[in-house]
Inverse folding.
């Protein structure tokens, strides 16, 4: 029987690595991001991937997409179902007081509102099912430590962590609980880091730290992070409701 995964933010970076790793192990993936890239099209030939174009800032489209996904899932037979809330945006970068309302609002939509709505949907649809059910929220060290210039990103990831912990407490009372954890994935070599390194120092004072990490080859590859996170989910090292950091579980490659 199948193991099903729903993954957001799959067009590139960590999300794309999750999809590749999952498919290579024979898992079935429902992927959500704004566009179906050539790489996702190629992966669809495996017949293990169904992709949905959906901008997570468009809540009506998101709900329709989730309806379609669960209509397909609930008529199939499966062993386990896992949601990976991975999509995220670092934008807008800049101290509070200089940012556009529109970008701030989109940041909260993608980083916090969408994971909350998708988790709500996921738990509603799966609560009664007697199978393995898991939510992995991709958080950030920035949700646990302040960075000047990233206030909204930090706040949304901190919110995602507490949301995770609250679900953990709620699910203790359930007959067929959904497990949930949040993970800070370390500093990962993706487009998000390119955006960070390209930010002027006047706008983001810590930029030098991120430029140095790249120059010193200290970034984790998205493939390495995806593989290790998926192995951790399968292990019994994690407690539901916990907020973890991958750097506590790996030795750097
Ligand atoms: N890279 C790091 O060092 C780092 C560190 C800590 C935490 N994280 C977290 O790791 C996760 C993955 O980030 P990444 O580094 O892989 O970033 P990335 O390379 O920029 O990829 C972000 C993904 O999110 C999707 N996304 C962004 N806005 C979206 C929207 N409005 N609707 C739908 N999808 C949207 C993007 O898809 P499209 O733009 O194609 O739609 C893309 O697939 C994020 O949650 C991030 O906060 C990353």
């Amino acid at each position: 029987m199948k193991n099903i995964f729903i993954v957001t933010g799959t067009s590139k970076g960590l999300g794309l690595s999750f999809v590749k790793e999952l498919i290579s192990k024979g898992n079935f993936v429902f992927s959500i991001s704004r566009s179906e890239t050539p790489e996702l099209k190629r992966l669809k030939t495996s017949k293990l991937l169904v992709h949905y174009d959906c901008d997570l800032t468009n809540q009506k489209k998101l709900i329709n997409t989730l309806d379609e996904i669960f209509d397909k899932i609930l008529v199939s037979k499966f062993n386990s179902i896992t949601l990976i809330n991975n999509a995220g945006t670092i934008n807008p970068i800049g101290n509070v007081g200089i940012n556009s309302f529109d970008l701030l609002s989109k940041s909260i939509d993608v980083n916090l509102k969408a994971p909350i709505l998708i988790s709500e949907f996921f738990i509603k649809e799966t609560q009664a099912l007697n199978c393995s059910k898991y939510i992995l929220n991709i958080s950030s060290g920035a949700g646990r430590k302040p960075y000047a210039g990233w206030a909204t990103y930090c706040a949304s990831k901190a919110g995602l962590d507490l949301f995770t912990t609250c679900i953990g407490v709620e699910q203790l009372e359930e007959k067929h609980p959904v497990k949930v954890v949040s993970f800070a994935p370390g500093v990962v070599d993706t487009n998000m880091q390119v955006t960070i390194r390209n930010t002027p120092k006047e706008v983001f004072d810590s930029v030098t730290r991120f430029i140095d990490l790249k120059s010193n080859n200290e970034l984790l590859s998205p493939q390495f992070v995806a593989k290790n996170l998926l192995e951790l989910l399968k292990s019994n090292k994690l407690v539901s409701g916990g907020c973890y950091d991958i750097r506590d579980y790996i030795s750097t490659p």
Q: What stands out?
A: Strands lie at 2-8, 28-33, 49-53, 78-85, 132-138, 179-184, 243-245.
